[in-house]
Amino acid sequence: MTGPRRRLATLAVAALLGGCVAAPPKPDYDKLLAAAPRSILVVPVVNNTVDVDAASYFLSTIPVPVAERGYYVFPVNLVKRVLEDDGLSDASLVHAADPVRLCALFGADAALYVTIEKWEAKYLLISTQVTVAFTYVIKDGRTGDTLWTEKRLTTYQSDSGGGQGGAAGLIAAIVSAAVTKASPNYMGLARQANAQALGPAGTGVPYGPYRPEYGTDYPRPDKAAGAR
């Protein structure tokens, strides 16, 4: 087979194999749908980064998107105070505690645990890249079983010159990088990650009972028909 024909054959085989790549598996919602939680307890966030303020900032971004999915969310500051009074002043202790016990303190159906894996801004040549990454887990308040998990990583990179060339473009890029490094938009990225993790059909959390769409996105198992 000649060179051009061989290259064409190789491209055809590659295209065929590419079309046969399996789609990522769909999330398994069976346990979450069967548990049919109406209320979710958002517990303090574990912070695996060097930014000591990351957990407090992030915690303020998570109640709204959970509530918007149709679940009752307990006030996060009240939850934190009650847990501290119960001897669970550290988020790591809360995450290691029995989910059934935690939910029983508030009468919650399920608990949402979030771990911050990345919350950083670093220089990349003449730009600054801001990155946040989170792990989300929902556990059943009656059994302690894991009902749903998700991971999200979101990034933003400062303007590398705004299309300008020469010295002007270089100066613009340096200024943009410095401004981004001095004041990273962590909150915006956190809200974006939460929306991506909780919201989209097929990957996010199914609609809860306080949304009119409840039960329309995923059929409820018979045993979950009598939701709590």
Distance between the termini: 69 Å
The CATH topology assignment of the domain at 26-122 and 130-154 and 186-204 is: Rossmann fold
Report the oligomer: single chain
* CATH secondary-structure class of the domain at 26-122 and 130-154 and 186-204: Alpha Beta
Describe the global form. Answer: globular
Secondary structural class: alpha/beta
Number of helices: 9
Q: How many beta-strand segments?
A: 6
Name given to the CATH architecture of the domain at 26-122 and 130-154 and 186-204: 3-Layer(aba) Sandwich
Sheet-strand content, in percent, reads 15-25%
Instruction: Estimate percent helicity.
Output: 25-40%
Global mean pLDDT: 80
The low-pLDDT segments are: 11-23, 166-183, 222-228
* CATH homologous superfamily heading of the domain at 26-122 and 130-154 and 186-204: ABC-type transport auxiliary lipoprotein component
The H/E string reads: HHEEHHEHHHEEEHH
Radius of gyration, Cα only, in angstroms? 23 Å
Strand count, sense and barrel status of the largest sheet are: 6 strands, mixed
Descriptive overview:
The protein has nine helices and six strands; from the N terminus they run ααββααβαααβββαα. With 228 residues, the protein is an alpha/beta fold. It has a domain at 26-122 and 130-154 and 186-204: Rossmann fold (3-Layer(aba) Sandwich), CATH 3.40.50. 31% of the residues are buried. The model is unreliable at 11-23, 166-183 and 222-228 (pLDDT under 50).
